[in-house]
Amino acid sequence: MRILVAEDDETIRLILGKTLRELHHDVTFACDGAEAWDIFRTAPKHPLVITDWMMPGLSGLDLCRRIRGLRARDYTFIFILTAMKGKESFLEGMDAGADDYITKPFDRETLAARLRVAERILGLERRLERLEGLLPICSYCKRIRDESDAWSSVETYVAERSEASFSHSICPNCFENVIHDEVEVEAG
Amino acid sequence: MANGTGNESPIDCAVLDSVTDGDVAFLQELVASYVESSRVTLRELRTAVRDRDSSRVYQAAHSLKGSSRTIGANAVAHSFEMVEDFAGERNLAEIDVLMARVAEQYEALVEHLHRVCRGQKVVV
Prior knowledge:
heterodimer; A: alpha/beta; five-stranded parallel beta sheet; two-stranded antiparallel ribbon; B: mainly alpha; 5 helices; 75% helix; disordered N terminus
């Protein structure tokens, strides 16, 4: 996953970089909030941002608010990384638009688990966007192209992505145009 | 485990080991990075204390607390946290008292980290 990390402390950048690369993520670093904001707006999409809270200039909370203010079509999952203490700090981070909160010093296994949760949520978000948005459908056979570019029937596509199940029946039009004609042919 | 009493080891080796995962080259890079950046921030902290600027004291102490704790330097991190808390209360008089202890702990930590990097057995 492409991850943008905003952290002004070089030591923590080093440790985060090593950890995230070992977890097979593609990491871009920003040394403060302003640089992170520039990268976020101009570089290819980063679906996940990890930001320190307290940075000179643009803080992690300001960065969160700016990202949420974009109202982008693709969702960005944001972690706040902080040594701040207390419930008030947690709530302030969440109110600014963060999705999760990691305290320093971070634990590698906990970070890995939380990143897996973030990936799951981003995957669900992409599927939801696709269901809410335009579905690429074949003009002839009416099959639908999914997220992995595979084509499947409408029934399969919807059943795999929702709790809907299908009861097969015949609409009045098809009864008139297909079934009625077939019955008449059978009857001679 | 560090408790800030001044009698504990400067570093929790279990934390440092888990961060470096036995990678000696990374350990040396990490220690060099920590010492270089923390010296700069510690200088900023001293200047801010001298200028009686609680806000800058708070920011510098907060930053030093985070990086120190991340490498397992719990004793000095605890002292930086006390400085941070006093700065939040604008109690600079207590910080003046603390700074001598912070400097002493910090130099002991740097010496300890250099010994760890040289691969010397560290007696805790």
